[in-house]
Amino acid sequence: MKRTDVIEFYARLAAGNPHPETELAYGNAYQLLVAVALSAQSTDVGVNKATRLLFAEVDTPAKMVALGEAALKQHIKTIGLFNTKAKNVIALSEALIRDHGGEVPDDRDALEKLPGVGRKTANVVLNTAFGHETFAVDTHIFRVGNRTGLARGKTPLAVELVLDKVTPQPFRLHAHHWLILHGRYTCKARTPECWRCIVRDLCAFKPKTPAPKGAAQQEI
Q1: What's this model's pTM, rounded to 2 decimal places?
Q2: Is the peptide bond before 170 cis (omega within 30 degrees of 0)?
Q3: Is the CB of residue 50 less than 8 Å from the CB of residue 79?
Q4: Which residues are catalytic?
Q5: How many other β-carbons are positioned within 10 Å of the β-carbon of residue 82?
Q6: Distance CA 157, CA 219 (A)
Q7: Which has the closest alpha carbon to 55: 34, 77, 80, 79?
Q8: Quick one: pLDDT at residue 71?
Q9: Is 60 strand, coil or helix?
């Protein structure tokens, strides 16, 4: 995608949603870290349902450790891989207490050393909690990057590095939220809804999905 098209691509997404936010519910950086760790292979809606009562009770690593793994499992048993995730959340909470004074570190390497925390989770926390210009490449961003031609790559890391290279100011801070939301609600996995996409003329995907009968095409 040409640089002028990249700028226009982001400008349109920004105009449609000037202040994008994560759809995960959280009250502080620790709760965000837990929510993102729980969201792997799960929907944000499902995680929010599981954490609603949990986060009303637990907002620090110390409280999570006091709650214990068995009780945590009862809170999150409706989401995928809950046994492994519960074990990791308790372990990362213990590590935060032991190594970081109970605080979430503002550092990618330190975050990635926590149990159950990979690069994507670290990037989300750095961006959302600390305002870093990071690109957390999940399945939605991987798809959108490759499908549109904005950032092609064979791995999430490859797509992340391209995004970091091609995304200009003033779009860098919110870029990954715009791309996630675009992939979640418009550029869907099975059938992208091209007829209502505000960046379809900039997108390399062909053939564009036509509007279903009775649906109006989004003007650009």
Answers
A1: 0.91
A2: yes
A3: yes
A4: 120, 138
A5: 19
A6: 34
A7: 34
A8: 97
A9: coil
